[in-house]
Amino acid sequence: xxxxxxxxxxxxxxxxxxxxxxxxxxxxxxxxxxxxxxxxxxxxxxxxxxxxxxxxxxxxxxxxxxxxxxxxxxxxxxxxxxxxxxxxxxxxxxxxxxxxxxxxxxxxxxxxxxxxxxxxxxxxxxxxxxxxxxxxxxxxxxxxxxxxxxxxxxxxxxxxxxxxxxxxxxxxxxxxxxxxxxxxxxxxxxxxxxxxxxxxxxxxxxxxxxxxxxxxxxxxxxxxxxxxxxxxxxxxxxxxxxxxxxxxxxxxxxxxxxxxxxxxxxxxxxxxxxxxxxxxxxxxxxxxxxxxxxxxxxxxxxxxxxxxxxxx
Length: 312
Hints:
Mean pLDDT is 83; it is low at 202-229. This protein is of the alpha+beta class. The protein is globular and about 80 Å long. Strands 1-2-3-6-5-4 form a 6-stranded antiparallel barrel. It has 3 domains: 4-82, Alpha Horseshoe (Serine Threonine Protein Phosphatase 5, Tetratricopeptide repeat); 99-204, Serine Threonine Protein Phosphatase 5, Tetratricopeptide repeat (Alpha Horseshoe); 232-311. α8 packs antiparallel against α9 (184-197). The protein has 11 helices and 6 strands. Helix content is 58%, strand content 15%.
């Protein structure tokens, strides 16, 4: 038979869950904390304490505090390590945090690209672009970003660094990007930096006052809020989990779907050939989609390989 403190705590938790279901997040969290305190002063039943942590985590999540929810669920799992429900909830919260952080990183890269494209001689713009690209690279590394995403952050940082006059450091950054993802644009940039560094000293060390036009810098991300082509079309070739491989006018690509569904043969309309998160439309089923453009302009073999790699 349950002890009196445990029985009281259980009643408080039941009331807390009811309040949460009714939308009273603040009241539910307060009751759950009182239940935990009551239990700590009495029987210290780990299952009751774990459930209190779970209720508080749910309240934190509903209040928009994802980090606070994760902290509470870590405590919850520590108190009841054998409960699969708690582990599953913690895993779900961590996955959502990772997605949010990667989206934040894409926003930072978009802003950095805007600063670079609009550069008019202000050193603080370049410093901001470098800072944003470095922050984006850290977020991608810490929260499950792909090599392509990390290398793109390095590339954008190298461009801002080169324009500011430090082409030696720019060469280091673009070298790191190329080693993560060997592609033509990165090789061209790396060679351009090497050529400039090997030029006469009076030329090599003068800061560049404009974005170099060779190689082409069209692959620097467009900033959000700036018009990008939104009338593209893609045909779904293959679907694996939340990822699909598509054929566009310039080759094949990979899209991660955040919302909505697609089947092979469906036509997707929207921005399908620009890196980033976009609202799309499944013209075949007349359904709205939210998708992250992971790859585009690839060969069939390259896109299929990346689809399988990302879906694992």
